[in-house]
């Protein structure tokens, strides 16, 4: 099943050039800023527009030749551009973008733009939950096996910032969100993995079917020389695995006739030629029962890409997880605190709650779809109480009252104090919001840092 180490970039296409062209970049988050600088370096006349009046790195962008148009959008810049590049947070339905498309302006996302200039092969990982952990672990497994690896995309460094470092030997391990994938056209992963699918981002996508179609685009340009990796434990992903690529399935729950699975505490691969042991799960130091699926997925992907058994095992043994993902924050008076701020949808929050007993879950934020009622089962089995925060407080309270005690908090500081009292003497305070952070914080990372800061304050008394 291991793929040969030969280039797989698909059919040759004419070099993509922006030299001398007028390009508008929409959205000044990390991806937009990286795209603007990349475009300038490739000879384009670049304007970066954002509705915010103050953005990071403004002085550097200007020094590098990027024109900034802040505090709103000038419709004439959209229709007058040769090319428009969007950040993932910019919805395709933005009226100025729709008008530009109608006028014949080429519009693409930052991921699509960067991928057109990469020399190395792409390993793309998407899914509703677990993709950051899986992407990071794949990168570490390949690095430990001696491969040249760059990890980025929706996690860490935008793909545009990797273009100048890309060589034919580079493996680009890319976390790809639905927002990024829905604006792709020629994006061509050598290995594409869909980890799982559940309701998420329904404040952006009109329904679950549209969200699924965006995820499915990760396979759109694959050919028979490529690989797709699917989760056999979730039929929803199997139904989306269409196209010409060769298929590998994985399971964290039971053996497969062919694929990657767990038996007797060891991740194994079975093919028509027999079975081989890959990685012992006992070396893993990741908290949470659901993390096993991420480990099996990462092993399947890494093995396909040429990682060695020793490299995969060493990387897993050294990997303790990501910040804001089931992060052990501390203990106060017998009560443990866990930061899972990245659990921004209901399904991810449910898996978090199931990982502990005596849980007091801090839930809420900006609602983006899903049913809070789906947390009832995990809370009955593992929960002690819920503290509701943010704009979604009334929804959380209505859905979970009667399942466990529910209290509402006006701030995260108040939530941490209330949760600590409810979890005493031996419970777990778990930040598992099941919502985005944008009502109270700039992003999930800021929310996670604020949670940790409040736990520190509480510990100091």
| CATH-assigned homologous superfamily of the largest domain | Mur-like, catalytic domain
* Spatial separation of the terminal alpha carbons: 56 Å
Query: What integer is the average pLDDT?
Result: 93
Helix residue percentage: 25-40%
Quickly give the CATH architecture of the largest domain. 3-Layer(aba) Sandwich
Q: How many structurally independent domains?
A: 3
Order of strands, widest sheet: 7-8-6-9-10-11
Give the number of helices.
16
Cα Rg: 23 Å
Please report the total strand number as a whole number: 20
Sheet with the most strands, sense and barrel status: 6 strands, parallel
CATH fold type of the largest domain: UDP-N-acetylmuramoyl-L-alanine:D-glutamate ligase
Shape: globular
Task: List low-pLDDT spans.
Answer: 2-11
* Secondary-structure content class: alpha/beta
Class of the largest domain, according to the CATH hierarchy? Alpha Beta
Strand content: 15-25%
Write a structural description.
This protein is α/β, with parallel strands linked by helices. The chain has 3 domains: 22-110, Rossmann fold; 118-318, Mur-like, catalytic domain (UDP-N-acetylmuramoyl-L-alanine:D-glutamate ligase); 327-460, Mur ligase, C-terminal domain (Protein-Tyrosine Phosphatase, Chain A, Alpha-Beta Complex), CATH 3.90.190. It has 16 helices and 20 strands. It has helices at residues 30-41, 58-63, 75-79, 95-102, 110-115, 131-144, 178-181, 208-216, 235-240, 291-304, 309-318, 346-353, 376-382, 393-400, 412-423, 444-460; strands at residues 22-26, 45-50, 67-70, 83-86, 106-109, 121-126, 149-153, 171-175, 191-194, 227-231, 246-250, 259-263, 266-271, 274-280, 327-332, 335-339, 359-364, 383-389, 406-408, 428-431. The strands form 4 sheets. Strands 7-8-6-9-10-11 form a 6-stranded parallel beta sheet. Strands 15-16-20-17-18-19 form a 6-stranded mixed beta sheet, sandwiched between helices. It has a 5-stranded parallel beta sheet with strand order 3-2-1-4-5, sandwiched between helices. Strand 15 (327-332) and strand 16 form a beta hairpin. The longest helix is centred in the C-terminal third of the chain and has 17 residues, at 444-460. The protein is globular, with a radius of gyration of 23 Å. The relative contact order is 0.09. Mean pLDDT is 93; it is low at 2-11.
